[in-house]
Specification:
Blueprint (H helix, E strand, L loop, with lengths): L1 H9 L4 E8 L6 E3 L5 E8 L6 E9 L2 H6 L5 E2 L3 E2 L6 E2 L10 E10 L11 E5 L12 E2 L12 E9 L3 E11 L1 E6 L2 E2 L16 E2 L1 E4 L7 E10 L1 H4 L14 E10 L4 E5 L5 E4 L2 E5 L3 E5 L18 E2 L1 E2 L7 E2 L6 E7 L3 E4 L5 E17 L6 E7 L1 E2 L5 E2 L9 E5 L6 E3 L6 E9 L11 E8 L5 E5 L2 H17 E2 L1 E2 L12 H14 L3 H14 L27 H13 L2 H21 L33 H22 L3 H22 L11 H9 L5 H17 L11 H10 L3 H9 L7 H5 L34 H10 L1 E3 L8 E4 L9 E8 L2 E10 L2 E8 L4 E6 L8 E2 L2 E2 L6 E6 L4 E5 L2 E8 L3
Helix pairs in contact: 5-7, 5-16, 6-7, 6-8, 7-8, 7-9, 8-9, 9-10, 9-11, 11-12, 11-13, 13-14, 13-16
Bound molecules: alpha-L-rhamnopyranose.
């Protein structure tokens, strides 16, 4: 009887588990993590749900796992609330093996979930010796940067039916692979950009469905990519030769196996891609297409033998996240002729990707596409700000009935496309469209307000992120730069983590940071580092080494990542310590508060907001040390906590001695100096409030404008809020004259600009040598918009949103803010609305989390939840009236609060 009862409880539908992840992916094929971690989400119709236990099981056979027999590993029932990053603890995992897993959970309401659906992960090649394929290159002497793309092919016969087939592939340069004429996978610019000499990713594809019995062919085309293409003023940075490593492993239904690997049996030639580079674009000659070159029937007599080269395989790694994929499609908004006579298409959005053509014409006709982000004052096509990047795509027609073309190894940042040479009609939305390409990350955040300008700002922040998260976080996506600038990434990281799931994206990039960090601890300006070794170790840029791991840890609760980055974090802090004299870091080159406000054309009255670079260095030295201490505490490194806490005290004392006057003034008298001093607690408690007053005065002195650059901007609204100046924070947020966030919005921006005045008030464009219209740094305000305006964040006491802090700060005459976030536990929502003296607050707290809620401007007795007194809600505890707020803890579920409110 007892048993029967238990089993009825066990299959209650009130609780299910879904959204299974292995590491950062759903069903990853080809990982090399030996202790992968599992995450799942609970789904429940009830309120106040916490997981009390879980059970995991793993099998190498999908059928067996369902029966619970012949399991490779079972965790047994583990009493734990952990549902994110739960580590595999079973027997050693083997190369190539696919593992199936599922999970079930129990909750605090007496429910047990059924077993989840079965997911899987598959291991890559764990030992470099398992690569029997050889690196091959073309022996065409004309094969150089900007030259024609080399192609490789191999025909082979399969006489038995195929059971499984995997393609393991990487390249020096970027590749597109084909089997029997079909493109393999849906990723672009593979194998992606990493610190190639130390870490080169390979991809694994399930290609069984592309094979057939009889004649087959495998092939690949290579492009310069990051490997030998132009990067800044350099090229051939990782080598001069493009090469390919491709290993096709086939298992037949009878259990026998065969491997087709690159070697000197492979044939090579070139074809239609005459030149292809990220900065310059692509030249494609349709007349030179070698039709069917990647099929078995093709006659490759004229092709040469590929040359085997001796190149390392010991740097090969499996990716932790998928690469760049095609995302949104844009149809032309309008096509027009400029005053200079150019035919231009406006796609309505500054996007990053390319244009797809579907056209008809005569053989040999040339269509040229130029790309631009903006038009100039006279509405002419403007490309000066692209500097040396040509951004031109040229397509030479074959003369077929209809030709479809898109570029291969290039991408452009553009809103406008100038079309020349085309004689057909461009007005039909069918024949030309643009497609955005960026790293495959799930959108997690959604923020809407009652203010359309703020909604456009949020849109611009999101598109700044999409356009610049192209395998690595770049500063900009259009000019001859597009590099992994560290300062920009540290400024924007926390905002990025609201908009999209960036945990795998940044964990990949942070590994490259560790790989490229100098032996003395200096962190390069850009990651992957392609600059001289001396381009390293600057305040506010190199600090990405501590800031980003900490942000990722607090957002996603990824302790292993923190542990892996810890040596890098510590090395960076030690570098600053080693540079310092008497605990003061005041040497070396620094970028300072990049792109801060300066009046133009002259600065006679000294309004330029120049912040002393060494003051900045000292504050970031302290900040990084603090984050190192935080990480050490999480990881249980008590000795480090102790010694770096002592160091931190010395750093702050040295700061006070050098940069703070007896009356509490700080050198320099700029917003950024005040902000960094306050944000990083550089002053003793009693001096902070007076300094915050100076900050506010300074903002007023500039007519309620910010003057901050890349380093100060992320802190301005958070610091104002912390010291009780929400009103000033809102004034800055809603300011729409230069310099401000809404000024570009009013000028028609669809992305975040590099400079506060990329387009000046009179319509003139800023200095073309530095005027990107897609540079996400200033988008760092997004963090405050989610965190404070909407009031949605993780509670610091339980990171990764295990406990959520819902504490909105209404203001700025905004009547509605609605922020939703897909956390690691599920959907969280904070929506507030003020109208006719009533404050409405709708919140959703995902299962297996709790929230601390702070209702602003509330009196306890006036609050209702779903129409009933708040006192009657069971899931609420610890109700407490503060000065003007009411706070409490709440369990999972959706709640609708309402109370009288006056603002
Ligand atoms: C510029 C980049 C980047 C900035 C550095 C200092 O070239 O665009 O945004 O971080 O310089």
């Amino acid at each position: 009887m007892m048993l029967l009862l238990l089993s009825t409880v066990a299959f209650s539908k009130a609780l299910t588990v879904n959204s299974l992840l292995c590491e950062y992916q759903v069903n990853p094929v080809g990982i090399d993590i030996l202790k992968p971690r599992f995450s799942w989400k609970l789904k429940s119709t009830l309120r106040n749900v916490l997981q009390t236990a879980y059970e995991l099981r793993v099998s190498t056979n999908a059928g067996d796992i369902q029966t619970g027999k012949q399991l490779l590993y079972t965790s047994g029932k583990v009493n734990s609330e952990q549902s994110v990053f739960v580590s595999y603890k079973g027997p050693q995992l083997l190369s190539r093996m696919r593992y199936y897993w599922q999970v079930r959970v129990w909750d605090n309401q007496g429910n047990a979930s059924p077993w989840s659906e079965v997911n899987f992960w598959e291991m890559g090649l764990l030992n470099p010796r398992e690569w029997t394929a050889q690196w091959i290159k073309t022996n065409n002497l004309a094969d150089t940067t900007d030259g024609a793309s080399p192609m490789f092919r191999k025909a082979f016969d399969l006489s038995k039916p195929v059971k499984t087939a995997r393609l393991y592939i990487t390249s020096h340069g970027i590749y597109e692979a084909f089997i029997n004429g079909q493109r393999v996978g849906n990723e672009y610019f593979t194998p992606g950009w990493t610190s190639y000499n130390k870490r080169l990713q390979y991809q694994v594809y399930d290609v069984a469905s592309l094979l057939k019995s009889g004649g087959n062919a495998a092939g690949a085309v290579l492009g310069d990519g990051w490997f030998r293409g132009h990067l800044d003023k350099w090229k051939n940075l990782y080598g001069k030769d493009l090469s390919l490593l491709m290993q096709l492993e086939i298992t037949f239904t009878d259990g026998s196996k065969t491997t087709i690997g690159t070697n000197n049996d492979w044939k090579t030639s070139d074809g239609a891609i005459r030149s292809s580079s990220f900065y310059n674009g692509e030249i494609y000659d349709g007349r030179l297409v070698k039709s069917g070159w990647n099929t078995s029937a093709y006659n490759d007599e004229g092709w040469q033998e590929a040359t085997v080269i001796d190149s390392s395989k010991s740097n090969l790694i499996a990716p932790v996240i998928p690469g760049v994929k095609k995302r949104e499609i844009f149809r032309p908004l309008k096509t027009f002729v400029t005053p200079k006579g150019d035919t231009v298409i406006d796609f309505g959005q500054n996007l990053v990707g390319w244009v797809v053509l579907k056209i008809k014409g005569k053989k040999g006709d040339v269509i040229t596409l130029n790309h631009a982000e903006v038009l100039d004052k006279e509405n002419n096509f403007y490309t000066l700000n692209l500097r040396h990047a040509k951004c031109v795509v040229k397509y030479i027609l074959k003369g077929d009935a209809e030709e479809v073309y898109e570029p291969h190894f290039t991408y452009q940042g553009f809103r406008y496309v100038k079309v020349s040479g085309y004689k057909g009609r461009l007005d039909s939305s069918m024949n030309i469209h643009a497609v955005a390409l960026y790293s495959d990350m799930n959108t997690t955040g959604n923020l809407t307000t009652s203010n359309p300008l703020l909604n456009q700002l949020q849109h611009n922040i999101e598109w700044g992120q999409k356009g610049n998260f192209v395998d690595v976080p770049t500063d900009c996506p259009q000019r001859d730069e597009r590099l992994g600038w560290t300062g920009d990434a540290q400024a924007f990281g926390s905002t990025a983590a609201f908009n999209m799931n960036v945990s795998g994206f940044f964990s990949k990039w942070l590994k490259d940071l560790s790989a490229d960090q100098r032996a003395d601890g200096a962190v390069p300006w850009v990651i992957p580092n392609m600059m001289p070794k001396t381009s390293a170790g600057v305040a506010g840029w190199s600090d990405v080494a501590t800031i980003l791991p900490w942000t990722m840890y607090t957002t996603y609760g990824d302790t292993r990542m923190l542990e892996e980055q810890y040596p890098s974090m510590k090395a960076w802090v030690n570098y600053m310590r080693d540079q310092s004299k008497d605990n003061l870091w005041n040497t070396g080159f620094h970028f300072g508060d990049w792109c801060f406000y300066t009046p133009s054309p002259t600065d006679d009255s000294g309004k330029g907001a120049v912040t002393d670079k060494y003051l900045i260095a000292q504050t970031f030295y302290a900040h990084s040390t603090q984050l190192l201490i935080n990480a050490a505490a999480v990881l249980g490194k008590e000795d480090d906590v102790k010694s770096y806490t002592e160091l931190l005290n010395q750093i702050k004392l040295a700061f006070q001695k050098e940069y703070v006057t007896a009356s509490g003034r700080v050198l320099s008298s700029t917003q950024t100096a005040y902000l960094l001093t306050l944000a990083f607690d550089m002053l003793p408690e009693p001096q902070r409030v007076p300094l915050a007053k100076r900050l506010v005065q300074n903002i007023k002195d500039y007519g309620n404008h910010l003057t901050t650059g890349f380093l100060g901007t992320p802190y301005i609204c958070p610091v104002l809020t912390r010291f009780g100046y929400d009103d000033i924070a809102y004034t800055l947020l809603l300011q729409d004259t230069y310099p401000s966030w809404l000024y570009p919005v009013k000028k028609g921006a669809t992305t975040i600009w590099e400079r506060w005045d990329g387009i000046k008030a009179n319509g003139d464009l800023q200095d073309p040598s530095m005027n990107s219209f897609n540079h996400y740094s200033y988008g760092a305000i997004g963090n405050w918009m989610y965190h404070t305006m909407a009031g949605l964040n993780t509670d610091e006491s339980m990171v990764g949103y295990k406990k959520i802090l819902i504490a909105p700060h209404p203001g700025g005459k905004i009547s509605m803010v609605d922020a939703a976030l897909e956390t690691s536990y599920g959907y969280a929502n904070s929506k507030w609305e003020v109208s006719s003296g009533i404050f409405k607050m709708d919140i959703t707290v995902p299962p297996n989390t709790t929230a601390k809620v702070v209702l602003p401007g509330a009196a306890r007795k006036g609050i209702t939840e779903s129409g009933k007194s708040i006192n009657t809600v069971k899931a609420i505890s610890g109700l407490q009236q503060d000065n003007t707020d009411v706070q409490f803890q709440v369990g999972s579920g959706t709640y609708h609060f309402q109370y009288p409110y006056s603002n």
